[in-house]
Every structure is written in structure tokens, then in C-alpha cells.
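go over my protein:
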Amino acid sequence: DVRATGLRPRDGGSEFEVCGLGEPRTVRTLLFGDHNAHAALAALTAASIEGIDLGRAIARIAEVAPEASRLETLALANGATLVDDSYKASLESVFAALDAFAGLCATRKLVVLGPVEDPPGPPGDVHREVGRRIGRFADLVVCVGERMTAVRAGAVESGLPQEAIHLVGSRLEPAVALLRATLRPGDAVLIKG
């Protein structure tokens, strides 16, 4: 009965219209991604049931910041944007982060990815599917961890050139060095896992 329409990224968060609680109203949040819009809709619905003024509830939602390392958006000194989603890397959270990040407006989109935690199936198959999703929107991928070649294979299947995919092993220093040399103003980088 309550739904979001016109979901779109906006200044490190998102914006949408809430419908089903009277006249449609614009909701702005510091959170982005479909999964966070669902949480906002649930909160607004609960507020409505409890008789809380919708305008007041919308204003409070606009103040809710993401948890640390959970799609936390940070402006970097060089003009790039960092989206830190490094807290966990279950397959569901990887897919949610990739879907949200794919919708961001950026000159280039870079993804730094670690292995999926406790993959629900053969790790190679799971990582190949992750690579396919990344290959649909990313301009550069940095894989940190062992046995990440399946990510590269999936990304190449989706059209990302192999030279845009860097396997740096399990050490972070090569990934950091690559990002320092590569990031430019207007870029966005997702760190997942």
C-alpha cells in the first residue's frame, strides 16, 4: 500500500516520492539504494500508524546517516567520491551495494572488491556472477584476495576489458597504490568486502 516512486541518487544519498500515505511527498535521505528506500518506507508507515506527523517523520529520515562502512559516502580531497561498504561481504550485501553503486552519477566508476563471505554455492560460480554484475557498469575493478580470477572472467563476459581488471592478491598496498595513481575528480569508488 505504501511505495516509493522515482527513486534516484542525490548528493551522497537518494530521493523518492512516497505514495500511499496521503498526498505524494518527497523524501530525501543520506542513504542510497533500493534496500534503504524499503527501510525508509517501513519507518514512514510505522510513523503513520502511530499518528506521527508525516512531515516530521520525513524530516527525521533526512537526518539518518549510514552506519560506518555501510554504503557510507565520503568526499575525497581530490574530488572523487568513496563509497565505503567494507563492513561485510555476504552475497546479498554485495549485490545490494553493486546495484546501489551502479545507479550513482560519476565520471568513472571503480570497484575494489574482496571475496564474498560464505558464498552460497561454489565460490567460483558466485564470484563469476559478481564479476558479471560489475562488468555491466564499472570502468575499473581491483580484486583484493586470493582466487579472484572468477570475478575477472565474469566481468570480461559482461564486456569489461581484461586490462581494466586488476588482481592484486591479498595485500592492500597494491590496491591503494593503484587507486592513488588512478582516481580523478568526478570518479566514484566502491570498496566492498
